[in-house]
Structures are given as structure tokens and as C-alpha cells.
Design goal:
The protein is α/β, with parallel strands linked by helices and 719 residues long. The chain folds into four domains: 51-131 and 289-355, 3-Layer(aba) Sandwich (D-Maltodextrin-Binding Protein, domain 2), CATH 3.40.190; 136-284, Glycine betaine-binding periplasmic protein, domain 2 (D-Maltodextrin-Binding Protein, domain 2, 3-Layer(aba) Sandwich), CATH 3.40.190; 378-470 and 687-717, Periplasmic binding protein-like II (D-Maltodextrin-Binding Protein, domain 2), CATH 3.40.190.10; 473-682, D-Maltodextrin-Binding Protein, domain 2 (3-Layer(aba) Sandwich), CATH 3.40.190.10. Helices cover 47% and strands 17% of the residues. It has 26 helices and 26 strands. Strand 22, helix 22 (618-625) and strand 23 (630-633) form a beta-alpha-beta unit. The longest helix has 46 residues, at 2-47. It is flat and about 105 Å long. The protein starts with a helix and ends with a helix.
């Protein structure tokens, strides 16, 4: 028994010991896990900025907000779910820093908020998502408009007309209006007073979306409808202007006191479903723009750049809202349709994101540079040394340098990595936004070297040193495929009709024919019945005679009788050779001019065109020397966007970058024309008298000799 008890006690002790050890390891594991989670949490919070976004109370602006939200998340921002705020609440909250921005600013409609000093000092407008695409006005169903001949809102002064739209039998037309806290409600009230409609029309206000769905239902039942709306809005995707509804004009322009200066803008051209051209809708067209807190914008240059570039076509917003209204603007649906729009426009979106990322990288580097002591530039005698660690600056320059998965890759990056290995040195790599910034980093000794696609020029050699050339390139020209019509025979013929030279020639030809017609008519009208004495009929017959005679057709159906008439006819037939030759030459010249103006095949075709390029590059120097005025942009992506939008005729820039864009994001939208010109070499930039120039050149030559250079080149460019 004693032995058994001892055995039992021993086993119990062992079990207790095992339990204690298990508890110990569980506690240790839990503590470790908590530390890791806390560290991870700190890393996430330190690595990405959290943005507080707002959105409007009108649902039609929510999909735009979601698109921008998802784009910001693609460049590593954390964005809280947008807060839905009234106009007044947003402007005060943003001014105080409680929210960062929204993309639902309507201007000039919301310009009145800038009268608040706090708003004026702390907020700013950025970019334009929809330019003058936001129009507002009154509409009625087409059937009722035609039945009662209703053309303007003032027609509702008549009680019998107002009664048609009276739903509650109080003798007044029910105008489905906007929410009472929206700026448009004040304008509508002003219109009712100004156009003397207070006795016959009343605003029906509530939840606009619900009211409009009820309005659509009444229209589908064949009932008359009268409502206010705007673009972009799902209402006009359901009730189609000109087909289902028509716009009601105002009798004259009139706006509230704080918008008086906009009254001359209420007449708008090309309004589908309006009876007049231009159409006086009574509201000035608005730009849809982002409104941001100034301090937030200063701290987030990538957000600033993105908001400057984002543009969403009005038709796309209307289509998205028409889909969303059937899904009751559910959050899940908004996210889905916004994501689909981004994927459908991926090439364009990638340009925006690339430019925004560049701005972020440049800003981070600038902050780091200003927060640490700057090295002083020193004059160092060039000697063969092996550096311990180098600071290397670069920028995106596809295909030589790309930024993917949070790191730089490309031909230039691989080449530099091989050079560094040959030199047996370590390096740190960072990016900047522009070529100008890249060169300044080296010039100020913030970076030991810079590599991307940096052209070696005599001017740059005055301020920097360069390695041996490692890549030969040149400038080239990028044009839009949407201008391809001009390159076809039919397109060139069509373009002739837009040249003023053609119409000048036609007008002069007609004037000469009229002079000849009057001359023969004055001579023959009293003696020759073929030239009637009545002016209108006589001049027409004389004009006919002058035309067929000068073109050497000479039908002979009309012949002068008097000697003076015959002598003039003889003169006119001889002059016809010269006059018709002049007209033919005018048409030919017009075709030649059309050919010259439409086609860009090389640098010789650039004079007189709208040309875009990138600031601080050799392309600017070349265009200036050729007396070609160029529009300069900070990034190549911005230049590409202007070309795609047909704001410029061509982009002139480095051939590798243009060729890469034409074959990737710009495929089927743009094309490179001609061969490279103004040949140039790329090199590695260093400060003047850098001690690293010789080691870099030596390593580069070794890479060329041992075949490593060709292997890297084949990897990125093929055989």
C-alpha cells in the first residue's frame, strides 16, 4: 500500500508539474501574441494615414465619393466610411478639421459658404470631377407640355395650367422640389416670387429620392408630372429628356442676391429636351469639385494630386446612379459599382495613381531631408575609392524604372544593383516625383547618385557629373488615335470643310458671279426676254448665265442680243478661264492646308500644333530651340491625359517612355509616330567632383565586357 501511495503521489506531483509548465507556456505564448499584435497595430497605424471623408445628403453624389475612397485605398490610405453631412455641417466640420474632405462641392452654387471667415481661412477647392456638367432646372412630361403648349415656368401663372399638376386639390401646382436644406431650395423660392408663381405653385419637399420615385410611378400611370432636378442624377436616366420629359425655361434670368453675378450664365447650349437654343434654365451650370481642409491637403500631397486628376464622365455618373437607385443605394451596391467603374477604366486610373504615388514619395523624401541635418557640399579630389553605403535617388521612368509592389524595378534599377555589387557597396534607394527634383537631389548632395532615364547634356554637365552613357535613346512624338480620321482620305476631305480658306474662296467666287450677273442684266433686260426685267427673276437668270459661262459649260440656253451684251459675254468667257482657275486653286490649297494641319508624322509637323511635354526635360530644350511653344506638365502622366482628352495634338518626350505607354496603358488610344530624333544618351548623375564616378565607370565597363549588361538588357527589352 505504501508503495502504491508513493507511486500515486509521484504521479500526482508529475501531473501537477506538467500542468504548471503548460500554464507557463500558455501565458508566455499569450503575452508574445499580444506584443506581436500590438506591434503590428503600431506598424499599420504608422505606415498609413487614416482619412475621414464626408459625402452629401443627395445620394447621387455617393458613387463619386466611393470611387475616390477606393482609389485612396489603392495608394495605402485607410479611409473611414464617409459621413453623410448637410452642406452647412460639412463646411463647418471640415474647417475645424473634424472631417478631411468631400468630393461633392457644387460651384458656384456653394460659393456662399466662403463668406464664413472660418471656412475661407481653412478650406480650399481642388480639381474638377465634372466641368460645367451639373445643370439644374424644371421639367414636365412631354405629353402635357404639348397638350397645353407649356414652354416656360411662367405658363404656370394660369390657374387652369397649374390645376393640371395639383395633387392635393388646393388650387396650386405641386412642384417636386429639392430638400429644404439644399441651396437649390432658396433659388426655387426666389423663382416662385420673381415669376409671380406664389399663388399658383408650391414646393413639395421631403426626401428627394422618395419623392422622385413616386413621380416616376405617376408618370408610368400616365399622370402629369412637374419636378426640379439636376445632372448627374438617376432621374434623367429614367425619365429621358425629349423622349419622356422636356425642360421648362424661365422667362428671363433671375437669381438670388448672392448669385446675381451668375445671371448671364443661365443660358446653356446643347440642352437635350429644350425647345430653345440656347436654353435658359434659370440656374447657372456648376462644376463638381472636391473641397478639402488646407492643413490636410498640405500634409497629403498624394491626395492633392489625385483629386486634381480625377475626372468622371457625366454619362458614367448618370448610368451608375440609374443602377444604384434600383438597389436603394445600398452600401454593398455602391462599393460594387464603384469597383467595376475603376476596373473598366483601369488604364486611366493607373495614370492617376502613379502621379499620386510620385507626389507621396517626393513629399516623404522632402520631410526626411528637412528633419535631418543636410550634408555640406565639399570639393573632393576624384580618387579611386570604395564607398561604404550610397544614397541613390530615382523616379518612375517606364520601362527603365517602374514602381510595383512598393519597390522600384526596371532596367536601370537592375543595372545599378549589378554596379553596386561590382563595387562591393550597399545602398539605400528612394524616389522623387520629377526629373527636376531628381537632379536637384544630387546637386544639393542629398543623394550620392541619381539613376532613371537621365539624359546627359552640356547644360547639365555644368552642374553635375555623369557616368559613361549606359543607354542610347532620343525624343519621339505621341499622338491620339481619336485623330486617326484626319489621316484617312475621307477624313482629310471632311476636314477641308472646316477650313476658312475654302469659304473665303467660295464667297469671292459668288461675289464675282453677282457682279457679272448684274452687268449682263442691266445691258439686256430691256431688249432680251431671256433676261427678265423684274429684278429678282432677272438677276437669278443672269446669275445662271454667268455661272455656266464662266465654267466653260456654255449651255447656250441664254445668249446676249445687244452688241454691248455680246462683247461682255466674250470678255466673260475669256475671263472664265482665270476665275475658275482661281476657284480650283482655292479648293486645292484648302486640301493641302488640311493635309498639313491634320497629320503629324515627325518634328517637322509640330509647328502650329498644341504640344505637351514634361517640365525640366531635354524635350523642353529641344522644343524651345525649334520655337515650338509647349505646354509643360509636372509629370508625364498629366501630359498623357491631356492627349487622351484631345486637349493637345501631341506629346513630345523620351522615346522609351512614350513607347511603353503606347503599348500598355495607352494601347488603342494613342500611338507613337516617326522615328526617334534628337538622339541622346542616359547616364548616372553624380555631384561635381564625386569620388564615386571612377568606381561606377569601372564597374559599368566590367559589366559590359563580361556580358552582364547584355543579360540585363535582354531581360527588360528582349533580343
Amino acid at each position: 500500500m505504501f508503495w502504491i501511495d508513493n507511486q500515486f503521489n509521484s504521479r500526482s506531483n508529475i501531473l501537477r508539474l506538467i500542468k504548471k509548465k503548460i500554464h507557463f507556456w500558455l501565458i508566455l505564448f499569450s503575452i508574445t501574441l499580444l506584443i506581436l499584435l500590438a506591434t503590428q497595430s503600431r506598424v499599420v497605424s504608422q505606415s498609413s494615414k487614416t482619412i475621414t471623408m464626408a459625402r452629401s445628403t443627395w445620394e447621387t453624389g455617393w458613387v463619386q465619393a466611393e470611387i475616390v475612397k477606393q482609389l485612396l485605398e489603392e495608394i495605402d490610405y485607410q479611409v473611414n466610411e464617409p459621413q453623410t453631412l448637410k452642406n452647412e455641417d460639412f463646411y463647418l466640420a471640415a474647417a475645424r478639421g473634424d472631417v478631411d474632405f468631400w468630393v461633392n462641392g457644387w460651384f458656384p452654387l456653394q460659393q456662399s459658404f466662403w463668406q464664413n471667415e472660418e471656412v475661407d481661412n481653412n478650406l480650399t477647392i481642388v480639381g474638377t470631377q465634372v466641368k460645367q456638367g451639373a445643370i439644374e432646372g424644371y421639367l414636365i412630361d412631354k405629353k402635357t407640355a404639348n397638350k397645353f403648349n407649356i414652354r416656360t415656368i411662367a405658363d404656370l401663372q394660369k390657374p387652369e395650367i397649374a390645376e393640371v399638376f395639383d395633387r392635393d386639390n388646393n388650387g396650386k401646382a405641386d412642384l417636386i422640389s429639392c430638400n429644404s436644406d439644399w441651396n437649390c431650395a432658396k433659388v426655387i423660392e426666389h423663382h416662385l416670387v420673381t415669376y409671380q408663381l406664389k399663388n399658383t405653385v408650391e414646393q413639395v419637399q421631403g426626401n428627394y429620392s422618395d419623392l422622385m420615385q413616386e413621380t416616376v410611378s405617376r408618370y408610368q400611370k400616365g399622370e402629369p408630372i412637374l419636378f426640379y432636378t439636376w445632372t448627374p442624377n438617376w432621374t434623367l436616366g429614367t425619365l429621358i429628356p425629349k423622349k419622356d420629359v422636356v425642360w421648362l425655361e424661365v422667362p428671363f434670368s433671375s437669381l438670388p442676391k448672392n448669385q446675381k453675378q451668375l445671371e448671364d450664365q443661365t443660358k446653356i447650349t446643347d440642352v437635350k429636351g429644350c425647345n430653345s437654343e440656347p436654353c435658359n434654365l434659370g440656374f447657372a451650370p456648376n462644376n463638381i469639385q472636391a473641397v478639402t481642409n488646407r492643413d490636410f491637403l498640405q500634409d497629403n500631397p498624394s491626395v492633392k494630386k489625385l483629386l486634381e486628376l480625377v475626372q468622371i464622365p457625366l454619362e458614367d455618373i448618370n448610368d451608375l446612379n440609374a443602377l444604384l437607385v434600383t438597389r436603394d443605394y445600398q452600401t454593398k451596391a455602391i462599393r460594387l459599382y464603384a469597383s467595376q467603374w475603376i476596373q473598366n477604366n483601369r488604364d486611366l486610373v493607373d495614370l492617376w495613381l502613379a502621379a499620386a504615388s510620385d507626389a507621396k514619395l517626393a513629399s516623404n523624401r522632402q520631410k526626411a531631408a528637412t528633419s535631418s541635418p543636410q550634408p555640406q557640399a565639399t570639393q573632393v579630389v576624384e580618387t579611386q575609392i570604395t564607398p561604404a553605403k550610397l544614397t541613390v535617388a530615382t523616379k518612375r521612368f517606364e520601362p527603365l524604372v517602374s514602381y510595383k509592389n512598393n519597390e522600384y524595378v526596371g532596367f536601370s534599377i537592375d543595372l545599378w544593383d549589378a554596379i553596386a555589387q561590382k563595387m562591393n557597396t550597399e545602398y539605400s534607394l528612394y524616389g522623387v516625383e520629377s526629373i527636376e527634383a531628381l537632379l536637384k537631389e544630387v546637386e544639393r548632395n542629398n543623394a550620392d547618385i541619381a539613376i532613371a532615364g537621365i539624359t546627359i547634356t552640356a547644360q547639365r554637365e555644368k552642374e553635375l557629373d555623369f557616368s559613361h552613357p549606359y543607354y542610347e535613346s532620343g525624343l519621339q512624338i505621341l499622338v491620339s488615335n481619336t485623330n486617326a480620321l484626319s489621316h484617312t482620305v475621307g477624313g482629310r476631305i471632311l476636314s477641308v470643310f472646316f477650313l476658312p480658306q475654302l469659304y473665303y474662296g467660295i464667297i469671292i467666287f459668288i461675289l464675282i458671279l453677282l457682279i457679272a450677273a448684274h452687268t449682263i442684266w442691266l445691258v439686256e433686260r430691256k431688249h432680251n426676254p431671256e433676261f427678265p426685267s423684274k429684278y429678282i427673276q432677272g438677276i437669278w437668270e443672269s446669275f445662271w448665265w454667268a455661272a455656266v459661262t464662266v465654267t466653260t459649260v456654255g449651255y447656250g440656253d441664254k445668249t446676249p442680243k445687244k452688241i454691248a451684251g455680246k462683247l461682255f459675254g466674250l470678255f466673260w468667257m475669256c475671263a472664265g478661264y482665270f476665275i475658275f482657275a482661281y476657284f480650283t486653286a482655292t479648293v486645292t490649297t484648302s486640301f493641302t492646308l488640311a493635309e498639313m494641319q491634320a497629320v503629324i508624322n515627325g518634328p517637322q509637323d509640330l509647328p502650329g500644333k498644341q504640344v505637351a511635354t514634361v517640365a525640366g526635360t531635354t524635350a523642353v530644350e529641344y522644343l524651345n530651340k525649334q520655337n515650338i511653344e509647349a505646354i509643360q506638365y509636372d509629370t508625364k502622366e498629366e501630359a498623357y491625359l491631356t492627349l487622351v482628352d484631345n486637349e493637345v495634338d501631341a506629346v513630345v518626350y523620351d522615346a522609351p517612355a512614350l513607347q511603353y505607354y503606347a503599348n500598355h496603358q495607352g494601347r488603342n488610344k494613342v500611338k507613337v509616330v516617326g522615328t526617334p530624333f534628337k538622339l541622346q544618351n542616359y547616364g548616372i548623375a553624380l555631384p561635381i567632383n564625386s569620388p564615386y564616378r571612377k568606381p561606377i565607370n569601372s564597374a559599368l565597363l566590367n559589366l559590359i565586357e563580361d556580358g552582364t549588361y547584355n543579360q540585363i538588357k535582354e531581360k527588360w527589352f528582349g533580343n
